[in-house]
Amino acid sequence: MVYDFLKRLFDLILSVLLLVIFAPVIILTAIAIKLDSPGPIFADTPSRVGRYGRLFRMYKFRSMVQNAHETLLENPKFKKLYEEYKRGGYKLKDDPRITRIGRITRKYSIDEVPQFINVLRGEMSIVGPRAYYPDELRDQQKEYPHTKGAVKIVLSVKPGITGVWQVTGRSEINFDKRIQLDASYASKRYILYDLWIIFRTPFAMFSGKGAM
After folding, report:
1. Residue 72 is part of which domain span?
2. DSSP 66
3. CA–CA separation, 157 vs 194, rounded Å?
4. Is 172 contained in some domain?
5. What is the value of pTM for the model shown?
6. What is residue 92's predicted lDDT score, i.e. its pLDDT?
């Protein structure tokens, strides 16, 4: 389709351009992460669910301690924190696993910049739904069974670095409302709508609203 061709072309051009523009930020962030805490530069997180349910590795700057996800799931002392994590739509307001540099990169979405690599690889788009964890989709659909239809629509498109839920509340929106917003976006398929979301994204980034 014309929309798919234009969207892919737009993704490739904008990703290359933004990686060049953000090169100094990328270098400084990588250095800061290595100086701040032990571990790799990129987050070692579980696979995300992409288009048609295909799993892929999302590139993000590490903003937490090493093996943070496994620690939350497997360490008994984090059992209550894990329950809070699930109740909060797979987000934690006061997450003890976040590093000092991580609090800054997450607040202003700097940790998301490496996802342009995923866009170049064809796994993500600049604009799209949230890239969910497999267990997140499974558990949240059990809690909100009426969202199953919306999930199918969301998985018919590539997840995005930014999207309608990020520019209208981000982490402050619960799963049922977030997935409906994502499904609404996936059904529209307008380049002008993508451009509107991109225009709104810097304001969401610099305000830090809803970021965790």
Report:
1. 2-207
2. T
3. 13
4. yes
5. 0.83
6. 65
